[in-house]
Amino acid sequence: MTAKKSRKKAAAASNKPAGKKAAAKATMRDNILSAFGAEPRLVADIAKRVGCDQRAVRAAIDAARGKGWKIERTAPGTFKIEARAD
């Protein structure tokens, strides 16, 4: 591939909207957060319920906190959603 074609391909890729992968990631995050309910939950339990690994649950918690959600750590590996962001 020539340098010119490579630049065109890179420019075209950067103009693409968020695709199926981004939508799936958002859906997984929504599923994780909705699985918490009103009671404190273990990260491991949420991961098992949703069908993902514990790192994905922690990433969803961190992302939600970054967006203004109030999520309290009640014990090691246990979290409770206090308030949802508007």
The name of the CATH architecture is Orthogonal Bundle
CATH topology: Arc Repressor Mutant, subunit A
Count every beta strand, where a strand is a DSSP E run of 2 or more residues. 3
Q: SS-based structural class? A: alpha+beta
Inertia-based shape: elongated
Average pLDDT for all residues: 81
Largest β sheet strand count, sense and barrel closure: 3 strands, antiparallel
Radius of gyration: 18 Å
**Strand order of the main beta sheet, please?**
1-3-2
Count of individual helical segments: 4
Detailed description of the structure:
56% of the residues lie in helices and 16% in strands. With 86 residues, it is α+β, with helices and mostly antiparallel strands. The chain has a single domain, classed as Winged helix-like DNA-binding domain superfamily/Winged helix DNA-binding domain (Arc Repressor Mutant, subunit A, Orthogonal Bundle), CATH 1.10.10. A 3-stranded antiparallel sheet has the order 1-3-2. The radius of gyration is 18 Å and the shape is elongated.
List keywords for this structure.
86 residues, Arc Repressor Mutant, subunit A, alpha+beta, three-stranded antiparallel β-sheet, 3 strands, elongated, 4 helices
